[in-house]
UniProtKB/TrEMBL annotation:
<dbReference type="InterPro" id="IPR026913">
    <property type="entry name" value="METTL24"/>
</dbReference>
<feature type="domain" description="Methyltransferase FkbM">
    <location>
        <begin position="190"/>
        <end position="213"/>
    </location>
</feature>
<dbReference type="Pfam" id="PF13383">
    <property type="entry name" value="Methyltransf_22"/>
</dbReference>
<dbReference type="Pfam" id="PF05050">
    <property type="entry name" value="Methyltransf_21"/>
</dbReference>
<feature type="domain" description="Methyltransferase">
    <location>
        <begin position="66"/>
        <end position="105"/>
    </location>
</feature>
<dbReference type="InterPro" id="IPR006342">
    <property type="entry name" value="FkbM_mtfrase"/>
</dbReference>
<protein>
    <recommendedName>
        <fullName>Methyltransferase domain-containing protein</fullName>
    </recommendedName>
</protein>
<dbReference type="InterPro" id="IPR025714">
    <property type="entry name" value="Methyltranfer_dom"/>
</dbReference>
């Protein structure tokens, strides 16, 4: 599907076609909530022969501990991030950097031009040659920290996705510049039209409204995503999660890995 859309010449036609796919996507009737719980078991998965966990820390709980914050990534050709040309967006950090550090170590690189492009300059004398930069973008407005660089390749941005309704500090709620949508964030960072090799969204219960916003306003962006990891909180949002599953399928996504949250205090 992505190749089909990439062949289109007119960007507005591309957007229109993808929006039509979303608007006409058949959503099966959720007549039994158990269907939503069994989605991972009943859905045909993409048989990734080479998938690996990245990141994660052991969190103590009572007399035991559990792994939290790990993410699965498929390394098959066509899906694996190319260390020479790759881009990662990681929404939701909460000072737990294990996944982002792992992607940093992996060495994701993204091709960028100098300020001429970012400022809207025309190709010519204002344009510099291509440069290679290792970049993983990490976003979290709840950490109340200014933008900074971590390690060699990680760029922290004090930004969150629109629809965020988590534990954003009250003093930050009036600062609309801390919230944005993926389209505006990509534009701001000079990534319009780029493929996002891995998009992680783990924003404490606000993954659902954030994804719904993308489906509503800019679903074409999801056809530029190679792998998507979302921590979807199903509590009282069964149909909304069910709808997201099927909208992703209509856009060509296939399930690679699915598991229940291992956080004992909040899952039962």
């Amino acid at each position: 599907m992505q190749l089909k859309y990439a062949a289109e010449k007119n960007l507005e036609l591309v957007k229109e076609n993808i929006l039509k796919v979303v608007q006409t996507c058949p959503i099966p009737d959720l007549h039994d909530i158990q269907l939503e719980f069994d989605y991972g078991k009943n859905t045909k998965r993409y048989a990734c022969a080479n998938k690996t966990q990245l990141g994660g820390i052991m969190v103590p709980y009572l007399q035991q501990s559990y792994l939290d914050g790990d993410k699965w990534i498929c390394y098959e050709p066509g899906l694996a991030p190319d260390p020479k040309d790759c881009l990662v967006y990681s929404f939701g950090i909460s000072n737990e950097w294990s996944f982002d550090d792992a992607m940093d170590k992996y060495g994701c690189q993204v091709r960028l031009r100098y300020a001429g492009e970012l400022d809207g300059g025309e190709e010519g004398s204002d344009w510099a040659s291509w440069v290679m930069l290792n970049e993983v973008y990490s976003f979290d407005p709840t950490m109340n920290r200014p933008n900074f660089k971590r390690g060699s390749n990680i760029y922290f941005k004090n930004l969150g996705l629109e629809g965020y309704k988590g534990t954003l500090p009250e003093r930050e709620q009036s600062k609309v510049d801390t919230l944005g949508n993926i389209m505006n964030i990509m534009r701001m960072l000079g990534h319009e039209g780029r493929r996002i090799d891995y998009l992680k969204i783990d924003i404490e219960g606000s993954e659902i409204p954030a994804l719904e916003q993308v489906f509503s306003d800019a679903p074409h962006l999801l056809t530029q995503v190679s792998q998507l990891d979302g921590n979807l909180d199903k509590t009282s949002k069964y149909y909304r999660v069910w709808r997201i599953y099927h909208l992703l399928e209509c856009l060509g996504f296939q399930l690679i890995h699915m598991e229940a949250n291992r956080n004992p205090p909040t899952q039962f």
